[in-house]
Every structure is written in structure tokens, then in C-alpha cells.
Design goal:
201 residues; Rossmann fold
Length: 201
């Protein structure tokens, strides 16, 4: 794991951060907030019973929605607290503790490719800058023929959208569609969020 991973820095400086993160989203769900925009978009992009990799899955918010919709979900995250919560809340999916930049799913017995890889929740901005291309390459490597990678993150997080798209290109991924929200609003100048739907070049 990279020592400069932003999420690891947060956890090291505040050991209770992971549980706070879980509790925050539980509170949002209890208040009636809609937490499933990412899951709805991904579900609409693939046939029922598709294989989906949730890259940077956290406690399984997106992956759990997709598993409940009937997909075969594998989630990966480097935080053991979040992975433990995902396993407890959604035992029907497969949850693996691993670093996206060093991802080797075959070492965990996962040898079949995926119809789609989703990387939501600003995950890309937490990765150490020198590992972002490696993580994107690993995601691309997981795709079946015709599969796509969907990445979403916000502006102002020290990862410019143009830099991300350049990294994606260097990793063998090209854009199919660029959006500014998970509810399909078009991407354009001044957008504060990017949802990039990518395919292998």
C-alpha cells in the first residue's frame, strides 16, 4: 500500500474515521437521503446477473445495491474496517481487502472478468498520485470484452479532470460518455463533478 494514500492518512491520523464514515452514511439513510444514484446508473448499463467489480467499495453501499438487484458483485477496498462492515451487511457478495494499485484478484481466487467496474465515492482522488495509472490499468485488466469502467469524483480534490482523462488514456481506457452527475447530466466547462464511462481502447 502506498504510504501517501489519502484514505490511509485519514485513518492513521484519526483511527475512528472509518467507523465515522459508516455511521455518517447510516444516518443519511435513516434520514431518507437517496444514496443509490450510482447503483441505479450501473444497474441500467448491464443485463441482469452481470458481473460487477466495485473498486474502492468502502462498506459496500454501491455493491450492496447492485447485489440486491441480482448482480454478481465483488468489492475491493484497502480499509479492513470498511470491508468487515461490507461482509457483515451484504454476505451474498464477495468483499476483498486489497489495494487497487496492486490488485491481483486471481490471488484471491477470482479469475473471471467483469462486465463493468465501478469506482465511485471520490476513490480516485484518495489514491497516491503515482499509483493512479496503475489502478486504472488494473481496472481495465478486469474487463470482459465490451466491458466498461465507470469512475466518478468531484472537483477541487487535487486531481484535475483533464489529468484523470490523460491517466485513463495512458492506462488503455478511452471515454464513451462523460457526465457531470450520476443522473446523466452532460459534462461541460465548469462542471464540479465527473462521471466518466470508459472502455478499453
Amino acid at each position: 500500500m502506498s504510504a501517501t494514500n489519502g484514505w490511509l492518512r485519514l485513518v492513521e491520523s484519526n483511527p475512528g474515521h472509518s467507523q465515522w464514515y459508516i455511521d455518517r452514511f447510516k444516518g443519511l439513510a435513516d434520514s431518507g437521503a437517496d444514496l443509490h444514484g450510482e447503483g441505479r446508473l450501473i444497474d441500467a448499463m448491464v443485463p441482469r446477473r452481470s458481473r460487477i467489480l466495485d473498486a474502492g467499495c468502502g462498506f459496500g453501499r454501491v455493491g450492496a445495491y447492485l447485489a440486491a438487484a441480482g448482480h454478481e458483485v465483488v468489492g475491493v477496498d484497502l480499509d479492513p474496517v470498511l470491508i468487515a462492515a461490507a461482509r457483515e451487511q451484504t454476505p451474498g457478495a464477495r468483499w476483498i481487502q486489497a489495494d487497487l494499485a496492486e490488485l491481483d484478484l486471481a490471488a484471491h481466487g477470482v479469475t473471471e472478468g467483469f462486465d463493468i467496474v465501478v469506482c465511485a465515492g471520490n476513490v480516485m482522488t484518495f489514491l497516491a498520485p503515482d499509483t493512479r495509472r496503475a489502478a486504472l490499468r488494473r481496472m481495465a485488466d478486469q474487463l470482459r470484452d465490451g466491458g466498461r469502467v465507470v469512475v466518478g469524483f468531484g472537483a477541487g480534490r487535487e486531481y484535475e479532470f483533464d489529468a484523470f482523462l490523460a491517466d485513463a488514456g495512458e492506462s488503455g481506457l478511452v471515454p464513451d460518455v462523460l457526465l457531470s452527475t450520476w443522473d446523466l447530466r452532460p459534462f461541460g466547462e465548469g462542471a464540479e463533478f465527473l462521471v466518466a464511462i470508459l472502455r478499453r481502447a
